[in-house]
Design brief:
This protein is mainly alpha-helical and about 500 residues long. It has one domain (about 1-495). The protein is built from 22 helices and 2 strands. The chain has helices at about 1-5, 15-30, 40-45, 55-80, 90-100, 105-135, 140-160, 165-180, 205-220, 245, 250-265, 270-285, 295-315, 315-320, 325-340, 345-350, 350-380, 390-405, 410-430, 435-455, 460-465, 470-495, and strands at about 180, 190. Strands 1-2 form a two-stranded antiparallel sheet. A hairpin with a 6-residue loop joins strand 1 and strand 2. Helix 4 packs across helix 6 and helix 7 packs across helix 8 (about 165-180). The protein is globular, with a radius of gyration of 22 Å.
């Protein structure tokens, strides 16, 4: 396949394709960094712009925006604890703690390297292994989706740095919140209390912005208004890391990339699950002296590597099988059909010049992202030098504006503010806002998977699960994670 694809590499050097990459990367990085404005929204906004382009140029524009948008959310997550995307929420835990310790630039260095290399690796996997890996996604049915959701939920126990029980309570709260809204199976409203705004459920973005950004804005307003977040007066201009920066986290990066590449193949999983699995994996491998939850660079490296490691492989089931791996991939699939292209193996046989040019364009976009990100990162980093009296109110204002701009729904604004107050008090009492978010994200996946599992297993789910090798492997992983988390927590108390 590599020989077939190499002849199309030169296509991305055309002026139109290069400009499409630059536009997609720039829009993705900027919109991704704004809480409330997600990569799928950015991609959708670019679809009308692409009508005058050739199919390959239009799709290069889309996939470039996708790759950059996922990374763009890390800027605000690291610097302000305000994740721009759901795939950067885990990065806010260690990233912001590093910022508070005056290591914002160090965090951005590792984030940039992990994201760019993760994107490149996923791009080459997309280019070289699309057909065989697409078949892997067919191994996953309702049982596997249910267990994958449970695997993600099991990470709650790992990322609960205080009491494991408080973490599990937080996750349970998130699961309860995920049931709010009209049930799409029965069309019956659940826990809406006759509020029209709750019929569509509790959205992911209002939750992320509320629990992290708005709550953080409230916390910033508490301190001395004349001090800044980092405690520094100036920042280093060196954004790209050296070998000495990478060496201590090389295995964390590898595990993060691996997790992203694998999870990305599973439709509907995506970066939201990959980052938490990678993060919990890193915590389980913690050594004496590691400071997870207090600014551990290894945790940030793993989460950032997994985020963009997902991007390329999440496009594999879309291109080969027509099954989008996430919301962004679904929007790209729509753009693909708008331009008269149908996903599947016929796309590779009938239009190889289009599909391989798009794949090379995705790889080129990740290379270009390294240069554009360096320029933007320097500007974003200076936010940490602003006084708390300015940054705190600005975070609150942008949280409100971002949520309203994302949905045009005032109910989402009130919901975000309520969740923000909840997140503020949860932080005060050592409960885990991340647990609430995980429960909300994974709850619908687990519920749908369980319903379908019960139907196809004739209400004998356990015997059905034990008869599927992939399900058994995932189940063993879940049991191991939970057992390790409680054992570690017990050992910590004894010390």
């Amino acid at each position: 396949m590599i020989d077939d694809s190499l002849i199309y590499l030169v296509n991305i050097l055309s002026l139109n394709n290069l400009l499409a990459m630059l536009l997609g990367v720039s829009v993705g990085l900027i919109i991704g960094a704004i809480p409330g404005l997600s990569p799928p929204m950015a991609i959708a906004l670019l679809i009308p712009v692409s009508f005058s382009f050739s199919p390959e140029t239009a799709l290069i524009l889309m996939v470039s925006c996708f790759a950059a948008g996922i990374y763009g959310g890390s800027f605000s997550a690291i610097l302000l604890r305000a994740p721009g995307t759901s795939a950067s929420a885990a990065s806010a835990i260690e990233g912001y703690e590093l910022t508070k310790r005056g290591k914002a630039i160090e965090a951005i260095r590792i984030s940039a390297f992990a994201s760019v290399i993760g994107g490149l690796l996923s791009g080459f996997v997309l280019l070289l292994l699309s057909p065989p890996l697409a078949q892997v996604s067919l191994w996953f049915g309702p049982a596997e989706y249910f267990l994958i959701a449970l695997l993600g939920l099991s990470a709650i126990a790992s990322v609960s740095f205080g009491s494991v029980w408080k973490g599990l309570i937080s996750g349970l709260l998130g699961l309860c919140l995920s049931t709010v809204g009209v049930d799409h199976f029965s069309s019956f409203p659940r826990f809406t209390f006759d509020f029209i705004g709750l019929e569509s459920g509790i959205g992911i973005m209002p939750t992320i912005i509320g629990l992290f950004a708005f709550a953080q804005g409230l916390q910033l307003c508490e301190g001395d208004p004349h001090t800044n977040i980092s405690g520094l007066k100036k920042l280093s201009w060196r954004i790209w890391p050296t070998l000495s920066d990478i060496a201590p986290v090389k295995w964390s990066l590898f595990r993060g990339w691996l997790c992203g590449l694998v999870v990305g193949i599973i439709p509907a999983a995506g970066g939201s699950i990959a980052q938490w699995i990678a993060y919990s994996w890193e915590i389980r491998r913690a050594k004496p002296g590691d400071q997870f939850g207090k600014g551990e660079i290894k945790g940030l490296a793993a989460t950032e590597g997994s985020n963009n490691g997902v991007t390329g492989t999440s496009l594999i089931p879309m291109f080969v099988l027509g099954i989008p791996g996430g919301i962004s991939a679904a929007v790209i699939l729509g753009a693909l059909t708008i331009h008269g292209l149908q996903p599947g193996m016929r796309l590779f046989k009938n239009h190889p010049e289009v599909i391989y040019t798009i794949m090379w364009g995705f790889i080129g976009a990740n290379v270009l992202m390294a240069f554009v990100a360096v320029i933007l990162a320097r500007g974003y980093a200076y936010l940490t030098l602003f006084p708390r009296g300015i940054i705190g109110p600005l975070v609150i204002v942008f949280s409100i504006v971002g949520v309203y701009a994302g949905s045009n729904n005032v109910y989402d604004v009130w919901l975000m503010m309520a969740l923000g107050v909840l997140g503020y008090f949860m932080e005060k009492h050592d409960f885990s806002p991340a647990g609430v978010l995980l429960g909300l994200v994974l709850g619908p996946i687990a519920e749908d998977g369980m319903r379908n599992l019960l139907i196809i297993s004739d209400y004998q789910p356990l015997s059905f699960i034990l008869g599927r090798p992939v399900s058994v492997v995932i189940l063993i992983c879940i049991i191991s994670i939970i057992a390790f988390s409680f054992k570690k927590n017990k050992g910590t108390k004894e010390v």
